[in-house]
Amino acid sequence: MIQPGDTRTYVKHVTAADFARFEDGLVHAICSTFSLAQAAEWAGRLFVLELKAEDEEGIGTRLIINHKAPAFEGEEVVIVATLEKYEGNEVVCSYTAKVGDRLVADGKTGQKILKKEKLAKILAPKQV
């Protein structure tokens, strides 16, 4: 049974695809905040994958990321998500992202587990 304090780990291998780029080009050749955020959400989603039923799916509700240090191409970022709360259909995790002992980022993620049918209605394009 999953309970607060449990952890799940995801290892992200930093590649050039993770670099910070915008329409005006490359910003810097390190793992972007966006890429770290996506990896943090995935680490929290590992809990959702265990908790949801076949007719359910998770949807993100919050993401807090404090980007503290760089992660370079070729490095492995280890993201450890810690379950803070699982109440009703809400899953809240804190996480750390590290390369060795170097803290790259920390923060919080939130997801809700909803019936796929309900989620499809919520996410359907609105007819105007």
Automatic annotation (TrEMBL):
Domain of life of the native organism: Bacteria
Gene3D superfamilies (alphabetical): Hotdog Thioesterase
Domain Fluoroacetyl-CoA-specific thioesterase-like: 14-117
Protein name per Swiss-Prot or TrEMBL: Putative thioesterase
Organism: Pontibacter mucosus
